[in-house]
Amino acid sequence: MECFSHTFKNEHGSFCPGLQQLLHEHQQLNQRKLSLFELAQHIANGEVEDVAEALHYLRGDVIIFSEELEHHSSREEDVLFTKLEEYIGKDHGPIAVMEYEHDLAKEKIATFLAETAVIHSAEAEKLASYVIDTYQLLTEHFFKEENVLFPMAEQLLSASEKEELEKRLV
What we know:
Blueprint: H1 2-7, H2 17-44, H3 51-88, H4 94-115, H5 124-156, H6 159-169
Helix pairs in contact: 2-3, 2-5, 2-6, 3-4, 3-5, 3-6, 4-5
């Protein structure tokens, strides 16, 4: 994907409205995932007094984040990725990587939620690591979308495709 980064570099302010909406959603998700990451770090580092309570709180926030992430990623996959497939294909390259990372993030979140259905404080560091790993994965993922995929879409999609994107996303 790095070879695309130089060809499709773009400033975030020049995206069409549909891509701007996805970028805005990234910003909102970034704020929430940062707070999840910070709490998970405190848990993993043994910096909380009541580990069970902290894990319970983290679990509740992860559930909310998961719902927001699912809404966002399904919109990317169903709208943006579908449009880009016509130009760059789906089985290899950027779209395949983005979909794989969507699945991987969902898998990490699902594992965390399954393993925290009954909270065991002794496993706090391991449990928190799922959230920390997801944070790191999504940080890199959003970077790739914002600096490779979105600029690529901005250049490849026609004006009418951008209008359709706007209607479906904004």
